[in-house]
Design brief:
This protein has a domain of 192 residues: f41 fragment of flagellin, N-terminal domain. Helices cover 64% and strands 6% of the residues. It has 7 helices and 6 strands, in the order αααββββββαααα. The strands form 3 sheets. Strands 1-2 form a two-stranded antiparallel ribbon.
Amino acid sequence: MKATQGTTYRMLGSRLNNLTSQLEELRKIGATGKKVNKPSDDPASIRPILNTRKQLSNVDRYMETMGQSLDKMQATDGHLEHVENIMQRVKEISLNAVNGSLNNEDRSVLADEIVNLRKELLDAANGKVDGKYLFSGYEESTIPFVENPAYDPLLYDKTDHTTWPYLYQGDDNPTLLEITPGEKLQVNLTGNDLFFGTSTWNPTPPPNNAVDPGRYDLFSVLTQAEEAIRANDPAAMQTSIADLDGASDQNRRLRSQLGNRASRVDTAMTHQEAVRIDLKQILSRYEDADAIESFNNIVQQETAFQAALSITGKVSQLSILDYI
């Protein structure tokens, strides 16, 4: 009889242990919302789960990088808008000065305003985002533009950048953003592009590394507008007005190019977000537990556990006298 009772105890104890383990697993599923919490839960699902998670990680990386690039492009556009406003104001000043009715004091006031606007242009050219210069190419820690200590208006040569009033210290390297696997897009403008017009007008470089005469150095354009007004030189003023139009065109063209690229990045982000949603749905089908089903399973398991616990308690109260 002792052997029979001992066997019963062992069977009931084993049953309780199994029910306890199963209840713990169900409660873990209920707490995490995941039906696969470790490889042994569903070995067949582990590989697709890991692959999907890797794809999600790649998408998140694309999204983060594109978001950062788009922020910089939007900041760049803000600087280009300010540059456009500066060029427009200098043109208004030049048109006012060229009519010939101003005295020396009036012209001096207008010329001084252009000096201040040129300082604003320099601030825009040396603009930063997150502590990094926007227009230095790869040289993000190097200030792009500084005054040329050797500048002399009498020696100015439009085709020789060493005679210009400001010098560019960055490089011409484009910042390329991978928006999809294998597809890259330039997302920056260098100072040479924007303020010196290096690649704006003529797709075919001039021979012998000469400076393209069809481009505009924005700093020189403003400097010459100021000098023409101070000298009360109508012909020079007319030339500076034409140059201001060309420089404004140069800025607008680059701003348009940047806007098109920003739109492309935004479209790529929208696509990646759609891919991200699809991947999360795929992952959910492998991993996620049905909340109602999980609750019902826990209730059923707890009921079975309580019943087994009750039976075990009753059996443990039996003694040898109950069988005599």
